[in-house]
Structure formats: structure tokens, C-alpha cells
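Risk register update: the risk of archive-format incompatibility is retired. Evidence:
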Amino acid sequence: MLWVGAMVGFALAAAVVMGWLPEAWWVPLALGSSLLSLAGLLLFPAAFPMTSTLGALVVDLVVLAAVLWAGWTPSDLPA
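Archived output:
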């Protein structure tokens, strides 16, 4: 369920970036998806090949840093 939740959450977050869903949904979706994915990686570190696990870890950390530290929102994208 962790992987499904993270996948659905990231897909919905992408829909926010595309402008298909309200921008107010961005932070909860991005944070929730990243945290679910990190939980899955920590609980099941051997579930995927090491390169996939490291790639997912990097993406999760970049999303968390972009949202929490940099305050990035989809409206920051150039039109």
C-alpha cells in the first residue's frame, strides 16, 4: 500500500503541476507522496535494485527540499 499511495500521490502532484488540479493541493500531495515513498524505502530497502532505491531516495529528498526548504510551488514555473 505504501508504493501504491506514493505512486497515486505523485501522479496527482504531477496533475497539479500541469494545472489540472488546484495548486493548494501541491504541498500535501508532494510531502505525503515523498514521505510514503521514504517509508517504503526504509521499511523494504531490498524491494528494488540498489540503483532504483538510490534514485527514488534522491527524488524524494529533492521534492522534500524543494517544498520545505525552497518553498517551491507550481506557480513558480515560467509560463
